[in-house]
Amino acid sequence: MKAVRYYGPKDVRLEDIPKPEISTNEVLVRVRAAGLCGTDLEIYDGIMFYYTSGLGRIPITPGHEWAGEVVEVGSGVSRFRVGDLVSGECTVSCMQCDFCRKGWYNQCPYRTETGILNRDGGFAEYIAFPGFFLHCCNDMKAEEAAFIEPTAVALYATKLGGICPADRVAVMGPGPIGLFAVQTAKAYGARQVLLLGTREDRLKMGLRVGADAAINVRNTDLTKTVTDLTQGNMIDVVIEAVGKPKVWEEITAIMAPRARIVMTGLFAGQKCMVDFDPLVIGNISIHGALGSPDVWDASIDLHKRGLVTAGPLITHRLPLDRFEEGVEIMRRRKDGAVKVVLEP
Q: Which domains are assigned to the chain?
């Protein structure tokens, strides 16, 4: 089968490798769509933490946003049938350690991460995947099902923030996670969702998928604008999806007393200057959000009910052998690129 194989910084090869054989508890899937993510760009450039630290083995097939058709089912798997459309979780854990037993399998010290950490991903014609971490997406398009993973990341942040109909929400960053977070926040009943960023095309996309207002932080008085939009109430929940140190200044400029802040971005070692006095005085809660545990079925349901959609975000479709072209489209944001889908 054809597969994209990563060997090191900017050393990616399309190779013929054996089709994977499945174990008793695995399912063999013919990949139909796989999305490129900013993490894939970091892996390609060789700056992703798992590889700079030596935790990640190479070569590896990247690709953690994927969906495909079941073609073979292990004898120990009962939930899937040949022909099912499925997508698999990024985190695959041991399900035996203390973290897993508490339901925190995203913290499992023995975990692999699909296409990222010691588990081959979806930039290939086929993928073998443990049935326990696989989810059925029948009645969806394959390219939409490929984006259950970023939807689940956004939904996990939404649930950690406890978003409810009383809340005014700010989503920091109009990248794919931010754009899905706009939708999940609205789906969970937020009374108002503001999208903050610097790229006008992405901010317009945010309005298209449900944001009540979009604010370009480069050319506005952020505090005054949010004060006006919220009638002085400010922001109850902030979902951060930027990973840039300056975001802290923006968060503290708009948060209401008792606000909940959920951090999804990784800062790649950059240090933030944080004034803790407003956090203490305001009784502010801060949550880190890693991955997407226990929200996959809910994410699929949101798509099926039409409360979340990936369609407007998909701007480019390419065959698998144009992986590197897809990377450069993402890097340069060519032609308004938001999400690039590879079709093996």
A: 2-147+310-343 (3.90.180.10), 153-288 (3.40.50.720)
